[in-house]
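Exercise 7. Given the encoded structure of a 426-residue chain, write a plausible sequence.
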């Protein structure tokens, strides 16, 4: 029996798909590289954005028409099983907390039975982790979160915080390094909440992870600023390790305190900027990535202007802009919505500002020599990350091409808003 796993969404979902593959393989179910050769298609879904949901439902309906055997998991299984049933009524559905049961669900589905396991039971899924020997290892830390953001339904899909075993995570990191992984991506719905339910935190975990022997770098995934003050000193200390990328993903979401309050984000703009300033002053060369939602229902022109001012003051290295869109279980979906024209105009304006800022930030790196870990390759280039997790591209027209998994010094000769361009050099 063969299964094809189709993944949508974030690094966290990608990590879950690897755990699902491991659970299947332990039970004798082979994973394959295409839907055409599979006996069952397992769709690991995302529910963060309406556009992604539309892609998924279109795909579900198409596969249903073709008579494909389907098992749907991920965030849509946890939050929107009714939508799945509408577009693929014969599909089995299981939340990610039921990974241990997925081999039997897959077998039953292929045999013609429809199974629904929608419980959000707490389970320590890190036990299904099995290193692949790939350059990048994606390791999940927990399920759920401690926040109640008004724009998000992921908490509805994933439930409240359930941190996985610290020792299990450290073992997964160590196993991956021994099997050849060079970049370790720690991922969760909110890495900043990790361990709070168990009397520990992400800073303590990172410190212990960086004590593992080997040649590797660790990237900490998205961290909600509302928890940062609890352990910021410890985290800054942990980030000093040579094994830690000098990088944090801290979503601001809005530059307006009134919008943040309505979003139920437990910090102010000034508190956020204060923490960002301290981190930058104490972690040399750190890259800070942020997220902004434009067009939140009660965002006024002055609120949007406040966001522009905050971005111009903060000058983040990377800014991800999302247009607000209703999510079925999110409380903000019941507020009076802004016109699409307003949302689109604000998104376009902020995107222009962000691209210019990122281009200016990256231009300052031209002429620098930096160490890069190379993790990806395509027809035109070999790509990697600097110690500050900046995207570095070495075009293949250069005479020397670095090997994937290798580390080398490069000289930056050009830049764009999204990447630095380099050649190998001493």
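Solution.
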């Amino acid at each position: 029996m063969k299964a094809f796993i189709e993944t949508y969404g974030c690094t966290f979902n990608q990590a879950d798909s690897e755990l699902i593959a491991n659970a299947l393989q332990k039970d004798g179910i082979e994973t394959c590289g295409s839907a055409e050769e599979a006996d069952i298609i397992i769709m690991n879904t995302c529910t963060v954005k309406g556009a992604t949901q539309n892609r998924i439902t279109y795909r579900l309906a198409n596969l249903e028409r073709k008579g494909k055997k389907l098992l749907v998991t991920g965030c849509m299984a946890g939050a929107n099983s009714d939508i799945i049933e509408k577009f693929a009524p014969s599909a089995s559905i299981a939340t990610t907390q039921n990974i241990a049961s997925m081999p039997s669900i897959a077998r039953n589905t292929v045999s013609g039975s429809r199974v629904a396991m929608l419980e959000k039971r707490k389970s320590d899924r890190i036990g299904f982790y099995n290193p692949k020997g790939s350059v990048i290892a994606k390791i999940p830390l927990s399920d759920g979160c401690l926040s109640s953001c008004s724009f998000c339904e992921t908490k509805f899909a994933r439930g409240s915080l359930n941190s996985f075993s610290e020792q299990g995570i450290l073992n997964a990191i160590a196993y991956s390094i021994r099997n050849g992984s060079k970049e370790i991506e720690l991922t969760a719905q909110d890495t900043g909440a990790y361990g709070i339910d168990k009397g520990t935190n992400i800073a303590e975990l990172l410190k212990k992870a960086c004590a593992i022997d080997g040649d590797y770098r660790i990237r900490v995934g998205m961290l909600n600023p509302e928890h940062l003050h609890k352990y910021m000193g410890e985290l800054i200390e942990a980030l000093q390790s040579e094994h830690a990328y000098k990088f944090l993903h801290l979503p601001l979401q809005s530059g307006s305190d009134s919008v943040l309050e309505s979003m139920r984000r437990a910090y102010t703009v000034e508190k956020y900027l204060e923490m960002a300033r301290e981190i930058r002053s104490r972690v040399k060369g750190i890259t800070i990535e942020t997220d902004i939602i434009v067009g939140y229902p009660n965002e006024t022109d002055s609120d949007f202007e406040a966001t522009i001012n905050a971005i111009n003051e903060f000058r983040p290295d990377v800014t991800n802009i999302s247009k607000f869109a209703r999510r079925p279980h999110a409380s903000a979906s019941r507020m009076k919505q802004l016109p699409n024209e307003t949302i689109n105009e604000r998104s376009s304006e902020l995107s222009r500002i962000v691209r210019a800022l990122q281009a200016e930030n990256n231009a300052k790196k031209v002429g620098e020599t930096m160490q890069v870990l190379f993790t990806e390759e395509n027809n035109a280039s070999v790509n990697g990350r600097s110690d500050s997790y900046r995207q570095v591209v070495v075009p293949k027209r250069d005479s020397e091409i670095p090997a994937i998994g290798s580390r080398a010094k490069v000289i930056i000769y050009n830049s764009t808003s999204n990447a630095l361009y380099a050649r190998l050099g001493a």
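Remark. Residues 2-117 form a domain with the Rossmann fold fold (CATH 3.40.50.360). Students should compare their own answers with the one above.
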